[in-house]
């Protein structure tokens, strides 16, 4: 039976791969992202699109209202893939005081990587299919070991206790809540348009599998967590990093 699926950040990278995976299963997919032109270019056949800044209450409420109307009041699956580097997406003003720049960077990362997931989830948590609802957040290996940058990893790490709390709260309704924490994933916009070959090799060589991850790797894991086969998995942080977390 077709499910109602919301995917944030669904226009590019991991979110787009997940959207294609769910659409291939015959599910009804709603893509939510900041830029309508990106959502329109996604090319997910039959997908609905709604542009919104999910880091704001207004944006999250608008997306939630649109989803409930489109899906007749029930959401089966929520996949939260929206996010990115705050300093790149919302750079500090030119010439900002150093401490002001730090505050701006931390606020930007928590807006982009934490609030985008939390606000829409809270807007829709009472409308998730019960039983059978699924929530999957996309975190990062940086949330588990740091990234050398501080605020990005911290903003992703904030999703982990939120995952645990939601899993406990929604479990009695038959709803599972999990987080996928990727390592280096190629073919996304996260690192910008290009990466120096030396940096690419460093990241690939840090894995035990000897290759970069792909958006499809993450999408496959998300799809399984949302499947009947993943129905007894909840409150977990699932690492998908080719063993990079272990180190060489």
From TrEMBL:
Residues 3-188 form the Ketoreductase domain. Transmembrane segments: none annotated. It comes from the Bacteria. CDD domains: SDR_c. SMART domains: PKS_KR. Pfam families: adh_short_C2. SUPFAM superfamilies: NAD(P)-binding Rossmann-fold domains. This is SDR family oxidoreductase. It comes from Streptomyces endophyticus.
